Amino acid sequence: MTQGPKRTPVWQSIANALRGDIAEARYVQGDKLPTEAALSKRFGVNRHTVRHALSQLVEEGLVHKRRGAGAFVAARPTDYAIGKRVRFHENLLAAGRHPEKRMLQIETRLADGSEAAALQIAEGAQVCVYHGLSLADGQPIALFESVFPTDRLPGIAQALEQHRGVTDALADVGIIDYTRASTRLTAVLANQIHAMHLQLREGDPLLKSTGVNVDGTGAPVEFGRTFFAGDRVTLTLGG
Amino acid sequence: MTQGPKRTPVWQSIANALRGDIAEARYVQGDKLPTEAALSKRFGVNRHTVRHALSQLVEEGLVHKRRGAGAFVAARPTDYAIGKRVRFHENLLAAGRHPEKRMLQIETRLADGSEAAALQIAEGAQVCVYHGLSLADGQPIALFESVFPTDRLPGIAQALEQHRGVTDALADVGIIDYTRASTRLTAVLANQIHAMHLQLREGDPLLKSTGVNVDGTGAPVEFGRTFFAGDRVTLTLGG
DNA sequence: CAATATTTGTTCGTATGTATG
DNA sequence: GCATACATACGAACAAATATT
To answer: H/E element holding B41?
Structure first.
C-alpha cells in the first residue's frame, strides 16, 4: 500500500513540494529547512527519499547543506533592482531594446567542482556568487551567476554589494583590467529554477553561455554562467 | 567495521577509478560501462555505492545512463570555434577529432523569403540547397543545410556532388576564399527530423546557428542553417 | 511479435562515521 | 561530553525500461 500506480517518483514530488514552499516564500533565503527526519515524517517516506529530493534541490542551486547543521535555502526569487553588466548590454541596445538588470542575490559559499576547475582554485575554496537576471523591455531574457574566488579577490563580496557593476567591483579589489578568456555556448533544457526566473516552462530550450574572465597575469577572476531564454534571444556575432 | 580511518569516501574513489579508465581510453566514447552489478562485484561494494559514483560521473557529463540499457561513456563535447572563418574540417581536426560529413540531399529550388534576404537575391531566385550531417568520430553532432545562389555560383550543384566539403565546392566555382559575415545563435528543441538524423530524442536541446558567408567582395555566397546537438557540441568564441 | 532476461530506477530498512551546536 | 543532523555504506525488494531470445 506504500506503492501505488504512481508515475512520478516520490522524491520528485517532494522536491517539487519543497521548491514550491521556497517559491511561495514559506522558507526564505537563509532559512533552515526542517531536518531530514522531520521531512521524512512530514511526507511519510524514508529519510533516503527525502535526501534524494534534497540533493536534487542542491544540484539546482536552490538549497545548500552543511553537515551537522542542516539544509538552508540558498536563493530566493526576490527582485532587487540594482546593477548592470557588460558584454550583452551592448547587444541589447544595438537590438533597440531596453536592457535592465536585477540582482537576485549575492552569496558566499564553497566552490563546486566545475567552478573550482574554471577558476583554478581548490574544490571547496570559498567563492562569492552574484546571481542576477537580465531583462529586455521588462521581459526576462537571461539568468546569470558570476562566481568570484574570494581568496584571490579579498573584499569582492562587499565590493559587489557596493557597486553597480562587476567592472567597478573588480576595480575596487585591484583588478583594473580583465579580459574574457573564452566563451562557451551550448544548448540545454530549462529546469524549474530557470523556468521560474525566466518566466517560461520547464523543458524549454536555453542557450547556455559560460565564460572565464582573467586578469593581466592570466589568473581567472570570474567564472560566469548565463542562461538565455532560447526563444527570446538570438546572439549575433559579426555582421 | 567496514570503514577504516579513510578520508576519502569509497564512492569518490570508485568515481576516480572509472574516470581514470575513461581518461586512459579503456572505455571510449559510446562504450557501455559494466553493469552496476558487475561494478559492485569488481569494487567489492554495494550497488548503491556504485550508483553514487556513477551519478557523480553523470553530473560531470562524462557518462550518461539509459534505464534498462546501461551506462555509457558520453562523447566529450566537441569544441567548435566560431569566428570569421569557419571551417568544419579544420575545426574538428584542431580539436583532435575525426571529422566526417554525410550528404543527405542536394536539391535545386526557389529561394524563400529569409533565404533571399540573407543572400541578397530576389525572392524566387534559384538556389541550390545542400542538406548534410556533420559527424565527429562517427557520432552525429550537427544537421545543416547550406543554401547557395545558383545565379551567383554557376555549377555549384555539380561541384557539391563531386566534393565532400563546402570549401572545395566553392573553390571549384571560383570562390577561393570566404568569410563569415554574421552568425545568429539561439536554442531550440529537436523535432522528429532532427532527432532521427542526430540520433537523439525529440525535445532535446539544439543550438541553432544561422549564418551568411561572403566572398572577398562582400557578396553572400552561402546561407547556412545548422542545428548542433546541444549536449555534444560547445561553440567557443575567442580564447 | 511475444515472452523472457537484463539493467537501471526507486523505495524501504539498518548501521556507523563525523561535523555541528 | 553530549545530542543533533548530515554523510556514507550495506542489504533487500520491486518497478520500469530496455535488450534478447
So the answer is: helix B36-43
